[in-house]
Write a structure and sequence with these properties.
The protein is mostly helical. The protein has helices spanning 4-31, 44-47, 50-56, 61-64, 69-78, 82-98, 102-115, 120-134, 141-161, 166-179, 186-196, 219-228, 230-238, 258-267, 318-331, 360-364, 366-380, 421-439, 445-461, 482-504, 506-516, 519-533, 538-557, 560-564, 583-627, 630-642, 645-648, 673-682, and strands at residues 240-241, 252-253, 389-390, 403-404, 410-411, 414-415.
């Protein structure tokens, strides 16, 4: 039998082991590893455990996004020294960028993001830094394109590791929209972007050549490539790239011959792509470029691109990917308020997050704004309607693809695309109107009038206030009055209605998309485009301009705001605006008006010269006939009489031009006078008058003015 000391030691061991077991069990319960269900109730213990709270707040590694094992292992090994390592890597990245050591910079950026995967700032800053600062340091465009793609891929990796983060998604959409929409060298960058959406095999320039010694172009294969990629080919052939001297007349297309197309494909053979090298197999989502979002289990009702599928030529547009990322960003923020009171309302903070920038209303209109950009791009590139594009409009010696019909007559290859500008504008119009209704930016006239009346009643009881201004919050006593509360809400609605429509420029975009989706708008722009290409044939160009202006006037005259007038029984405090008030299109159309005047004046001078020559011949032969043979004179008159119609076709001088006058419907000018002056100054037709010198006022101690 053990002595008393041995028994005491044994008791202590049992107590210690029991305490350790209890503490371990309690930590597992507190952590949530062991669930203790309560009968008839949810797992209360688990819901209040560390793991339960972390899952509810989306703080666990897996709930925040895709886990990265290598980065997790490094973070565990560094323990408390991770902060020092991150600071050292940031300094190293700055130094590598200063020295232009781009490969080492990329390695440093990867390390920084691996050590801080759930901080959005490193992802946002480093992706922006590479996309904007590093890319512009490149001399070759395909190198610039590589770093743009690299910067976008970095932020896409960050979005995958930080699920439902609106800021990362919004910036992804902005990068696509900005770098492939309005940045420098945008034409070439768009072409490279489309090449990234084509498998390597299909854009291999060697496949488009014959196996002969001269390596001539295979006409059939080249035609197939053109038909498969009509928008790419049209942009390469027609869209002009600004010259280095900045002179518009010196601008040239990217390619001028099919051989130039082969050279372009050969020079840009190695690009970031959606496909695995030398295959038609799609890469993993985050290894693709362009990077598309994961749409699975996302409540997006509009049709968007799927990264599992190939993208056709008409889908290879950065604005469509931008629209998709913007839509994903809107999924992560609270639902919109159909009244523009500025109040977000109650929302689930575990499901939705507020973005840091830009302002919420501007943030919400990202998807529909990208759709308008998509429509503008198709319009500028000439895809107005479903009429085919003739690859060889002029069947001269510089024919790209020689083809003949059944009779042996030369014909042009016609290219078509499924998506055209008019369809895109119609989609934009629908989306803008839906966006306006969902966010209170579009209210029916009856609603505006009702809220305005209630707001005026509120202002009468609160002197010094006017409709549209922000009212003071209601006191506790005032909140009990339902009438006063409704009037106060009407003040908030009218304030938000005016301010948000102004901040987002909603009305302009809504009116523009509705007007541009009409047949007359597309017809006018199509005729103007043809007139610009027929500028050497003055008579044909003038006729096309006249038809285009007629269609444009029909478009402007049919606007609802102008024709509604006094027939509308509902008085609205909102100023009536329509497409005629759009200053951007006023400037564009007045530039065409000036160009038409130049063409018509040249045509007038040509006809006048021919008429002068006819009269000169008539007088010369008349003088000869008077002094000589009368029979010869009669014969000459007969010949000249056959040319007499030249007198009837003398073009009248078009002063003023089609848009210089006033509209017949309301007597107001088609183009504002300040717009006319601005355009004429821009084109160098007039010079701005110098401002008069300001003389200082005579005061005490100042010398008197001279005599």
């Amino acid at each position: 039998m053990a002595n008393i000391y041995q028994q005491a030691a044994k008791r202590r061991k049992v107590i210690y082991l029991s305490t350790i077991a209890v503490l371990l069990l309690s930590t597992l319960v507190v952590r949530g590893t062991i669930k203790i269900p309560v009968p008839g109730v949810r797992d209360v213990a688990y819901d209040n455990s560390i793991e339960g709270r972390a899952r509810r707040h989306e703080l666990s590694e897996l709930s925040q996004g895709d886990a990265e094992l290598g980065g997790s292992a490094v973070r565990l090994l560094l323990t408390g020294s991770r902060g020092l390592a991150v600071c050292a890597l940031w300094n190293s990245a700055i130094e590598k960028q200063r020295r232009q050591e781009w490969s080492e910079l990329d390695i440093a950026v990867k390390s920084i993001t691996k050590l801080q995967p759930h901080f959005t700032s490193p992802w946002l800053f480093q992706s922006w830094n590479i996309t904007y600062n590093v890319s512009v340091e490149m001399d070759r465009l395909n190198d610039m394109y590589y770093y743009i793609a690299r910067g976008i891929s970095i932020i896409a990796e960050g979005e995958a590791m930080n699920r439902n983060n609106p800021d990362l998604r919004y910036n992804l959409g902005f990068y696509y929209q900005n770098k492939f929409g309005v940045s420098d060298k945008v034409t070439t960058l768009r072409c490279l972007y489309q090449l990234s959406c084509i498998p390597d095999e299909d854009r291999d320039p060697e496949r488009l050549l014959n196996p002969d010694r001269e390596r001539s172009i295979n006409s059939d294969k080249f035609e197939t490539f053109c038909r498969t990629n009509p928008q790419l080919i049209r942009r390469l052939k027609n869209v002009r790239v600004a010259a280095s001297d900045g002179v518009e007349a010196h601008a040239k297309p990217l390619v001028a011959t099919p051989k130039d197309v082969i050279d372009f494909l050969r020079a840009n053979k190695k690009l970031p792509s959606r496909y695995k090298t030398a295959t038609k197999e799609l890469n993993d989502r985050l290894r693709q470029f362009p990077v598309l979002p994961e749409l699975k289990d996302q409540p997006i009702v509009t049709k968007e691109l799927d990264y599992h599928n190939d993208l056709g030529d008409h889908e290879s547009d950065a604005f469509l990917v931008s629209r998709e990322w913007y839509a994903m960003a809107n999924v992560a923020i609270p639902p919109p308020n159909p009244l523009p009171t500025g109040e977000v309302g109650e929302f689930d903070p575990y499901k939705y997050r507020m973005p840091k920038r830009p302002t919420l209303m501007v943030f919400r209109q990202g998807p529909v704004r990208a759709q308008s950009y998509h429509a503008e791009r198709l319009t500028k590139e000439g895809w107005f309607d479903h009429d085919p594009y003739e690859l060889d409009e002029e069947l001269d010696s510089n024919v790209w693809i020689k083809k003949t019909d059944d009779t042996g007559k030369p014909v042009s290859v016609k290219l078509t695309t499924p998506t055209v500008a008019q369809d895109a504008w119609k989609e934009a119009s629908v989306r803008w109107r839906e966006h306006g209704r969902a966010n209170g930016l579009y209210l029916e006239p009856a609603q505006v009038a009702r809220y305005n009346t209630m707001a005026e009643d509120y202002c009468r009881s609160h002197p010094g206030l006017s409709v549209g201004r922000m009212p003071e919050p209601l006191t506790a006593e005032e909140s009990t009055d339902p009438v006063l509360k409704a009037r106060h809400e009407a003040m908030l609605v009218m304030n938000g209605y005016f301010s948000y429509r102004s901040v987002t420029n909603y009305e302009t975009f809504d009116i523009e998309s509705e007007a541009m989706s009409t047949d007359d708008a597309m017809l006018a722009l199509k005729l103007f485009d043809k007139a610009g290409r027929e500028i050497a044939r003055f008579d044909k160009a003038a006729a096309l301009y006249e038809q285009g202006f007629a269609a444009w006037k029909r478009l402007l005259s049919r606007q609802e705001c102008r024709t509604r007038g006094s027939d509308n029984a509902i008085s609205s405090p909102v100023q009536c605006k329509d497409f005629r008030d759009n200053t951007t299109y006023q400037e564009t159309m007045y530039e065409k008006n000036v160009k038409y005047q130049g063409v018509a004046q040249t045509l007038h001078l040509i006809d006048r010269r021919l008429t002068t020559l006819w009269l000169h011949d008539l007088l010369r032969h008349a003088a000869f006939g008077t002094a000589g043979n009368p029979f010869q004179f009669a014969g000459d008159l007969t010949v000249l009489y056959d040319q007499a119609p030249v007198l009837k076709r003398v073009t009248p001088l078009p002063v003023p031009g089609p848009l210089d006058g006033d509209a017949e419907s309301d007597g107001k000018p088609w183009i504002n006078d300040d717009i006319k002056t601005r355009v004429r100054e821009k084109l160098g037709l007039i010079k701005r008058a110098p401002e008069p010198a300001k003389t200082a006022p005579v005061g005490e101690g100042s010398p008197p003015p001279g005599p």
